[in-house]
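Researcher: Last one for today. Full complex below.
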Amino acid sequence: MTDHDLADIESVLRRDLPDLADALVAGATHGIAPTERARTARWRRLAVAAAVMALVVAGAIALRSRSTVVPAAAPASYGTWSAIPEAPIEPRLHAATGWIDGKAVFWAGSSQNRGMAYSDAASYDPVAGTWRMRPVPGFGHPGARTAVRDGEFWFVAKGGIVRYDPGTGETTDVTAPGDVVPVVPVAHDGEMWVIGFTGWSSSQLTITRWDAVTEAWEPAIALPETLAMALSFEDLLADADVLAVGDRIVVWSHDGYGAGFDTVAAEWSTVLPPVHEGASIARSVAAVADGDLVLAAAWAGTEPAVDVGRLVDGGWQWSGLDIPVTDPASITVAAAGEWLVVFSTGDPPAVVHVPSATWQRDPAAPVAGVSDPNTVWTGAHLVVWGGEGGAADGAVWNP
Amino acid sequence: MMGFDALYARERDDMVRMAALIVGSGGRAEEIVHDAFEQVSRRWEEIERPGGYLRTSVLNGCRAELRRRERHRRLDRLQPPVRDIELPSHLIELADALARLPEQQRTIVVLRYLLDLPDAEIAESLGVTPATVRSTAHRALSALRKELM
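Model: Here's the assembly. Have a good evening.
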């Protein structure tokens, strides 16, 4: 249907919506139901109270008055950055990454202009400080999403699934689930799950678990349409965050919507969208740090900045960090145990200690200015390489 | 910058009408808008653009109300809303067609055709891209046209 065809319905809406709105409001104001009258009286009382309160509290409430985390003590140190040698493969965006056999493995990904897909792989040994090429599986895709289970990458692209062992170079085709168009694999508690859509032209999320015994996919469970109404996961194909936290697998859209699948109860639920005082959130990215779902939310304005929120009992607790950033739309994060590292174009990485809600930047960090780098948390080191503006060498952050 | 009273006088009725169309109830709309003004008053000194903040707060309140209603509906604790005022038939059809739209489509239709907001401003209020606003509006208009024309 063309825009021209829709002009008639637009005219109807412009003509009738105000009348319908007035009728609904009039129905409330003059409604017969006692509850409606009680609400109106309550409204008047509270409106007066709100006006008085505005005068009393104006200027007295700082930004940090919002629900805040009870902080732990600040750490003695925010870690150290050191450069690592040049990798034997080209720096890139969105490489598949994994901590496999004591090595940080980087595979596939796309070129800086996102036009070319790489298929080669290399690994970095943070103890020896050396790179090594890995056997090449012979394929890649710029839009692929990957996860690691049992030392193997599960590679999902264009509705197909392939497993790749970077130790041997062997690949194994996996039959795609019949009731899911697979988009993102996610490893959770030793098992592999795949999130995708219910059909090729559908935007309804659905999830299925790989049964490693029968080597088959279980029947998928779709996000109920009643929950899907307010959510837009159109960017799932591009870069929505998919994370395992506790018993849940969470899908987080950078537009600020989230849904979680409870792997025990086999139920979907929504994640409360973040709201930040005084400014609309330009971008929010999720990670799992200190055992919780953690969100870095950036807002635009005259002083663009990032705050870090933590999902506790279904609500976001904000840290009030206000980390200044040059380009709020460019933020990405890497979780490292109880730490969160925030990357953004033009800024040194910001190291956030989640339990104490404190942060620091080292302007001399070797990857300063790089956004969206490929990262691997080894449990002791965060290996950072490639990304937007990243060079062939990278860096290691040691907490 | 305008004061709280001026903001209240300028925005209150529009916000109630907007919320009424989204949640389908004038009474709930008044409560949602009241709560949003309370939030604005508490944070008045911190807010750069009170009008935008107010609108986002009202939309969040509408979203929470629809979720709450859905939860109650699923638990059979709440009967379907009863229309307690007489509406002309064409407005009943419009109200029913709006109610059948997904929440985001309905919200965008209301922001576009009741408040006449530009797509960029709608996108900012909802935290989505202008392209998403345009595509969602197109889907909503197609659905409404099918039902009403």
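Chain B touches chain A through 67 residues (CB under 8 Å). The longest helix of chain B spans residues 50-74.
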